[in-house]
Amino acid sequence: MARDGNSLSGVLRDAWDGLDLAPMTKTNRVRATAPHIGIIGHVTKDELLRNLTDTETSNGFANRFVWLAVRRSKELPFPSSPDHEAMQTLSTKIAGIIRNSRLTRTIELGPEAAEAWKAIYHDLSADRPGLAGALLARAEAQVMRLSAIYAVLDERQEIGLPHLKAALALRQFSEQSVVMIFGDSTGDPMADTILRAVRVREGMTDTQISSLFGRHMSAARLDQAKGVLAAAGYIHCEEVETVGRPTRIWKAGAKKAKEAK
Hints:
The protein is mainly alpha-helical. Helices cover 49% and strands 7% of the residues.
């Protein structure tokens, strides 16, 4: 995907959206209509942080995946094979569910699930700051898809409240995973540098922040980075009176509301 001219990112985004896939190749033209594609991948945290680019984070590629941080629960030097009969029973059941699901054209929300969906939709679809916000931007769409999967596995033709709750639980775990993996990074390298420095010190002036970058960055660009951090509640500005103009001091954390007298 990192090669110049590679169209895989766009193709995968179209696949998630269910759009027809028709790669622009000169020979052996192929076309996939109404695709339904699922991808399960495994990657280490270090490799993910190293290779997930700013572009793929911000263009909607990354938030089309549900990120889950997993660890092994135990060490098994001599793992046993799964029970053959149990595996056969499970595979037969899943095969039957797949056959029956092909007869279902539409899966809708049941009455209880619909009421719950209205109550949670605002929070699910709300914008969130920083890199984590970009990676979780399709929360409502992901929850609806997961709910439908749970309903199909339950051999139901409508999404019930248990299916919606199960999807929300998995989504909550995904949100916690994203925060654990990516922290409170903003996705802006300059803003992240400022945030780390401000947290180490008790406070930094505009001049000190400019010195972090050798005083080569424009005031407008620095103000933009500080604005990103302030909007996310990561830093706040306090003014200190001096003989001349007040000095702005940037400190970590959101600005506390003044106590009522």
